[in-house]
Amino acid sequence: MSTRSGCKYQKSQMANIAEQNQAIGANTVEQNQAIRANTVEQNQAVGAVAELLRLLVQREEQAEERCRREEERRRGEEDERRRAEEERRQREDERRRAEEQERRQREEEHRRAEEQERRQHEEERRRAKEQERRQREEERRRAEEEERRQREEERRRIEVAERERMEAVFAEERREQRRILETILEAQAPNIEAYLTTFERMMSAHEVDKEKWAFKLAPNLSGKAQLAYAAMDSDDAKDYEQVKETILLRYNINTETYRQRFRTTKKQEDWSYRDLIVRLQDLSRK
User: Fold this and answer.
1) CB-based contact 214:243 (threshold 8 Å)
2) pLDDT band at residue 189, thresholds of 50, 70 and 90?
3) Which of 84, 108, 236, 258 is buried most, with the most CB atoms less than 10 Å from its CB?
4) CB atoms within 10 A of CB 184
């Protein structure tokens, strides 16, 4: 009994399970159908959403494209504006530089004009000062020249007066010397050596330049002495020693003559020993 009950229970359980399975299958089919329907609807919705998203993306892309184009246009306008601004700035800078250059040129020209004017004024002042200095220098030079001329004229007057006085003195001395020489020549004509010695002492006493001795001696010569002088060369006749030697040779007086006199000279009664010594010294020098 229990076994049958158990079988029935199992059968009923199996029937229930079958029914449940059928129900589950029916539900599953329905669910699948619903799911498929839902899936279709979802797919349609997804497709609509996808289309909508595509449209939205397209619109977004279009909007982005428009924004990009607008941005590019704006950037282009900005670049154009910047280029225009840069060009304006460049033109402004060029204009400013041109104005600055022109201003500098005007200032430089003005400065040059002022400098030129200043230099002209300085040159005029310098010329005026130079002219004034030259005038003062010319006046001073004229005054000095006048003073120098006056001093020179005064000096010439003094020199002329002194020369006239000296010429008068020399003329008087020459006359006195000529008179003395003539006296000596007349008194001691035979002794030419004494005459020349006296002449030399007179020339030395009067401090006559030796170069003039021959000139002063010539007019006072006579006889053989004058002939000897006249026979001399013009250049030799200017040298007193040459004239003296020539005259003494004309009188046959030479070195040997003095040597013999030195050897033969003895003390005379009217000579002192001092006179003898002087005589011998004089002969030794000759």
Assistant:
1) yes
2) very low
3) 258
4) 17
